[in-house]
Task: inverse folding
């Protein structure tokens, strides 16, 4: 879990396209028409990533968290099952 409102990191897709900034208590929605395999990643003092084979008509959820690092926190990206993610997503404001 990202603990500070202003602490966060940029989430990128594939090469270097920033798709959102992950911050505590915030959510981001991305709609893709470019189906196929995509890598979503973030980097601070270390890098974490999730690869999703995006299919038409399906929803995917990535939980963005942070783990302690030596100097700054490290991103923690996880693909979450839809039935769990939808409940978490809807509970966020």
Result:
């Amino acid at each position: 879990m990202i603990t500070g409102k202003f602490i966060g990191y940029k989430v990128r897709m594939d090469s270097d396209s920033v798709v959102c900034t992950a911050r505590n208590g915030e959510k981001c929605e991305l709609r893709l028409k470019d189906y196929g395999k995509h890598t979503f990643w973030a980097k601070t003092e270390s890098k974490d990533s999730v690869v999703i084979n995006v299919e038409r008509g399906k929803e995917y959820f990535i939980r963005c968290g942070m783990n302690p690092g030596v100097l700054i926190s490290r991103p923690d990206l996880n693909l979450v099952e839809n039935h769990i993610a939808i409940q978490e997503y809807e509970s966020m404001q």
The mean pLDDT is 88. The beta strands are 8-13, 17-23, 36-43, 47-54, 61-67, 74-80.
